Amino acid sequence: MSRIGADPDGRLFVTQKGTAKTQETLSQQITETLAEHVGVHMTPHQFRHLAALLYVNEHPESFQSVSDLLGHSWAKTTLAYAGSSSRRASRAYGSHILQQRQALKLKRYARKRG
């Protein structure tokens, strides 16, 4: 449900009736949306860390900011998610995601034509 024009101090994620969505509902919707639009299964936790990793790849000087944003007490924890071996794995996974997205686009295109 759209929150445009809504109370800025109100809930961000609400049902059609205006009640707050549960964490379980949001988690399920995020996972399903990623599967539908990107073509991969990814939990919100994985998505959160992927977003941080992508940011660190573009802004390595902001490593501490990412650590703070993720709420990690120790930079070592962030390093586990955004260190050089994680970046290599991320690039490989990113390539896989792009391939999955392309296959999904082709599948949708074929359905529209067929």
Structure, described:
The chain is mainly alpha-helical and 114 residues long. It folds into two domains: 1-37, no CATH class; 39-113. Helices cover 67% and strands 0% of the residues.
How confident overall, as mean pLDDT?
A: 79
The oligomerization state is single chain
How helical, in percent, are the residues? 55-70%
What is the end-to-end distance? Answer: 32 Å
Indicate how many domains the architecture comprises: 2
Q: How would you characterize the largest beta sheet?
A: none
In the predicted model, the low-confidence regions spanning at least 5 consecutive residues are none
Beta-strand residue percentage: under 5%
N to C succession of SSEs: HHHHH
Count, helices: 5
Number of strands: 0
CA-based shape = flat
Structural class: mainly alpha
Set down the secondary structure blueprint.
Elements: H1 23-37, H2 44-58, H3 63-70, H4 75-82, H5 84-113
Helix pairs in contact: 4-5
Structural descriptors:
0% strand; 114 residues; 2 domains; flat; mainly alpha; 5 helices
Short description:
By secondary structure, this protein is mostly helical. The protein has 5 helices and no strands. The chain folds into 2 domains: 37 residues, no CATH class; 75 residues.
